[in-house]
Amino acid sequence: MKPLVAAAVTIIALGTMTTAAQAKTLFKDTSITALYGGGFKMVPNNETASLTTMTLEHASTHDWGGIFAFVDRHQGDEYDLKDASGNVTGSKNYRETFGKVSPKFKVAKFNDGLIKQVNLASVYEFSSNSTGFGQDNLWVGVGADLNLPVPGIKYASATLYHAFNNAERADGKKTKGDDQKITLTSAWERDNLLIDGYVDFAFNNEFDNVKNSIHFNPQIKYNIQPALGIDNRLEVGVEYDYWKNKFGVNDVDQNAVAALVKYHF
């Protein structure tokens, strides 16, 4: 096991065990989202494709740090199955499961200034799809929760990771090497209008054919709970997904838009 991987596993284990009986939950939220949209790249048989997605998501903050996790289930159209000679042998519906588990552990907290809290951070990222592609990636790094002087900001953070990438095609060939990532997240809310999302910048991949990439994924949502008079938060809106050099593939630039409905438990 590589040293940084061993360190990450140790950090996660220690963070999980830290004063479990005395740990205080400051915030928690669990939700399910339904999305449908088009413009997605690298889906079989299509230059761009439409996808239906169901997302289960959890976020919580604690006195020791916090955790964010989600699982996406994508469903797409049929695509052709081909043999080694390129002959069509049948068809299959596209399916993909993708998820992340992202714990962070508080190192230091500050009362004033731009930096609110410094964290040790990690991400376990996994996926598989019906074409045989799969990945199990581990990111470890250091980040900061930020105090941005903008009215309506709910949270903001910046994190630098080293990513140990294990992404493979159906034939077992590895498609990406290790790289570094900068992740920015933020959320803004006012009068039931919420805008949140993230930017990932991946760079310095050890494979020369894997290009730097930028993944920008905001959601714009409106909370209709007050209008409906229901107990739980219910949001409707849109998600925009811009991904330059998707998966590090040169000139594969994704511009996808999806309508969404999000229900909070």
Automatic annotation (TrEMBL):
Q: What Gene Ontology cellular component terms go with this record?
A: cell outer membrane
Q: Tell me which stretches of the chain form a coiled coil.
A: none
Gene3D superfamilies from the entry? Nucleoside-specific channel-forming protein, Tsx-like
- Where does the UniProt annotation place the signal sequence? 1-23
Highest taxon above the source species: Bacteria
**SUPFAM superfamilies with a match to the protein in the record:** Tsx-like channel (SSF111364)
Q: Which UniProt keywords apply?
A: Signal
Record's InterPro entries? Channel_Tsx-like_sf (IPR036777)
Can you say what this protein is called?
Answer: DUF5020 domain-containing protein
Which source organism does the UniProt entry give? Psychrobacter urativorans
